[in-house]
Amino acid sequence: MAPREHIVLVGPPGAGKGTQSEKLLKLGFSHFSTGDALRKEMATGSDFGKQVAEIINDGNFVDDDTMLEIIKRNVEWEKEAYIFDGYPRNLAQAEKFHNVLMKGREYKVLWLDVPEAVLLDRLQARRICSKCRAVFNTESLPSRKGCLCDREPCGAELSHREDDREEVILKRFRIFQDVSLPMKAFFKEKGCLLEFDASLGIDEVSENIVKKLAY
Ligand code: AMP
């Protein structure tokens, strides 16, 4: 059965939002990652892209109005069910998402919980394809082609994200605690929240998600 409600994936950096999105795509969702959309802007080398790079590489958040503009430019609302990966990310964005963007639409929030020590190890081993944005991990999910992407026909070089350096990771964790965590009570109160232990293996987490969504 094709999904009829939108999904929001929330979790600290390294919780597996991108990886679980890829798994959910097989159920018929469309995927929208704000981080990927911002990194695409960075790659253009435009003035806007340069401003975004400065913010992201320092581990800070892009402002809410810019994020809303990025959503409006990229999301095709006629599509039935999206996975929002990376938006909303603070209480103001969550309120706008619930009251404006999702007005008259159904959605669930999948909250991925993982202890910080596990996340730090994961992020330092994370590698991203510079072309198709596929996510790898040198420890738990290595590419079969070493430092090249093994997705056919991609084959592009894998890179370590500039914001996956230890001092930036620790800053992103603090921002998640201070800025993103308050969304949990908000979504719980709206009856949209589903929580997952995302320290488990990739397949186990995705099986638990599918079971709870009951598709
Ligand atoms: P991600 O790939 O989801 O880890 O996002 C990478 C970076 O993009 C974050 O650390 C933020 O700097 C920025 N970003 C992504 N989504 C948002 C958002 N909804 N609001 C503000 N900044 C964002």
What does this structure look like?
The chain is of the alpha/beta class and 215 residues long. It has a single domain (6-29, 81-213), classed as 3-Layer(aba) Sandwich (Rossmann fold). Helices cover 45% and strands 16% of the residues. It contains nine helices and eight strands. It has helices at 17-25, 34-44, 47-57, 64-74, 91-101, 116-124, 166-180, 182-189, 202-213, and strands at 6-10, 30-33, 82-85, 107-113, 126-129, 135-137, 158-159, 193-197. The strands form two sheets. The chain has a five-stranded parallel beta sheet with strand order 2-3-1-4-8. Helix 2 crosses helix 3. The longest helix is centred in the last third of the chain and has 15 residues, at 166-180. The chain is globular and about 45 Å long. It starts with 5 loop residues before the first strand and ends with a helix. Residues 13, 34-35, 38, 55-56, 60-62, 67, 86-87, 89, 93, 163, 172 line the site of adenosine monophosphate. Adenosine monophosphate binds next to helix 2 and helix 3.
